[in-house]
Specification:
It is a single chain. This protein has 281 residues and is mainly β. The protein is built from two helices and 21 strands. The longest helix has 15 residues. The two termini are 18 Å apart. The relative contact order is 0.20.
């Protein structure tokens, strides 16, 4: 996990060397790290399926027990005391995330060339883009992605802001053969989550898939609803605009409550699920 990989102390960007939902342990570490750096307790969101009037599933988070404590003037069952002061557990308010949109728009060819040039430097001419889209919502640092490949089958993933591209990996091709699932079906590139204002959250990620995969979908948290990923040139990409209807997504200065973990699902041509990140490594 890297916080502020571009060394911008004021930024709340969260970038991952591992996909956000590889395992429950990753989510636990991510929440703990944000809490430690922010100095405030945060909540691990967990989605449940409800129904919107438009038929789009929504998400609601259940607060996890917090390890933080606050002083109380009177003792209660199950509380402790030290130095004459009683202490009782404090549970942070729950945060409810709703999947609002996964719609992307194409990036023009001229902008793609500028993005790859700024991301890859002199190596840009060796790569051609297979996916180049703007995300459904823009954060301070990110408004899209370009996934490109060279003649050797090596991929790069460049996050965009306008016509500028950046990669948290050094070199950008570090994503190749870095993290495959146990069945060697899905390779994970970079997954990123960033807050957008007080109530919105941008989640995006990409990867590579083998030839036996015909369809890739994404689910979020404990919500079983699956949303289609973009697939082209052996790469896949997903992006989502998550909205927090319950209140601010920030738990204090310099910290924020992360959105729900994304999980990858892969299907073969017969429609059989051959990979489920919720259950598989």
């Amino acid at each position: 996990m890297k916080i502020n990989p571009e060394n911008k102390p004021a930024s709340l960007r969260r970038s991952w060397g591992l996909p956000l939902g590889v395992a429950a342990g990753v989510a636990v570490v991510s929440v703990g790290a944000v809490t430690a750096f922010g100095g405030h307790a945060t909540v691990k969101p967990a989605l449940t399926t409800t129904a919107l009037s438009a038929g789009i599933p929504t998400s609601s988070a259940a607060a996890s027990p917090s390890a933080s404590v606050a002083p109380s003037h009177s003792a209660a069952p199950g509380t402790g005391s030290a130095g004459g002061v009683s202490w009782s557990p404090v549970t942070p308010a729950p945060v409810s995330w709703t999947f609002t949109s996964g719609r992307t728009t194409p990036i023009a060819a001229g902008a793609v060339s500028k993005i790859l040039a700024s991301c890859l430097g002199s190596d840009a001419s060796q790569y051609h883009s297979v996916i180049a889209v703007r995300t459904p919502i823009a954060s301070k640092d990110t408004d899209g992605v370009v996934v490109a490949v060279n003649s050797a089958g090596q991929y790069v993933q460049c996050e965009t802001k306008g016509d500028t591209g950046t990669s948290p990996d050094s070199p950008p091709t570090f994503i190749n053969n870095r993290l495959w699932n146990a069945g060697h079906t899905i390779e994970f590139f970079d997954s990123i989550g960033e807050p957008v204002g007080e109530r919105q959250y941008l989640s995006l990620g990409a990867g590579h898939y083998t030839s036996n995969v015909a369809k890739i979908t994404i689910s979020y948290g404990s919500n079983p609803k699956e949303y289609p990923a973009i697939m082209a040139g052996g790469a896949f990409f997903y992006a989502s605009d998550m909205t927090n209807a319950s209140g601010s997504s920030s738990s204090g200065p310099g910290s924020f409550v992360p959105g729900p973990n994304p999980y990858i699902h892969a299907y073969n041509a017969a429609g059989q699920e051959i990979y489920n990140q919720v259950k598989d490594s």
